[in-house]
Structure formats: C-alpha cells, structure tokens
Amino acid sequence: xxxxxxxxxxxxxxxxxxxxxxxxxxxxxxxxxxxxxxxxxxxxxxxxxxxxxxxxxxxxxxxxxxxxxxxxxxxxxxxxxxxxxxxxxxxxxxxxxxxxxxxxxxxxxxxxxxxxxxxxxxxxxxxxxxxxxxxxxx
Length: 138
What we know:
The protein is mostly helical. It has helices at 22-60, 66-69, 73-105, 108-111, 115-137, and strands spanning 5-6, 12-13. A two-stranded antiparallel ribbon has the order 1-2.
C-alpha cells in the first residue's frame, strides 16, 4: 500500500504527485526569468564598462592620445561581459527546457545541476579582479 503524504493544505496526495503541480512549473519559469534578467544586466554592465574607458580618456584631456592608450582594457572586458550575458541567456533557455522535460518525465533531480550558476560566479569574480587591477594601474 502506498503511503500518502500531507500537503500544505492538510489534504492527502500520492508520492510524486507534486511533480505535476503547476506551482512547480511556475517556479521553473521564475528561475528562467531570473537568469534572463541576469543576462540582460551583464550585457548592460558590459556596455558601461566598455564606455568607461572612453570616459576616462575624455577626462584625461589631450595629454593622452587615443593612439598611445589604444582601445584599452575596458573595451575588451566590456565585450567579454556582453558575451557572458549572451551565453547566460542562451544557456538559461536550454536549462529551462531541460528542467521542464525533467519534471514531465518525473526525474527532475537528474536534470537539475548548478554548473551554470557556478560558472557565471567564477567569471564574474575574474572580471571583478580584472577591473580592480585596471583601476589600480590608473
């Protein structure tokens, strides 16, 4: 005989029945949208970083020419952040699809991984260290 589990409302449900609960799908959707917001923020931040170098050259005045300073570290770091934002958006779409399929097939735990999150955090830590070094050398 299968054991019934009490839910939040005090009702009885079958084990594994919560996987078809629409709240689970909504939670996966919220997670997907949070990753999309993160990707958009990374792209916007990358744009700001790329333009920061131009701002610094402008306030430095005519003493530093564009040829001496080149395109600068901030341009490449900004482009990398924009690329990271694009990868986060694309990766989150694939992960969302995996999660929904995992829920539908009843093996959500096998589909769930945190590698994307840890990868983004590692890249952001490297970008922060790079920006710190850049500001120190000014």
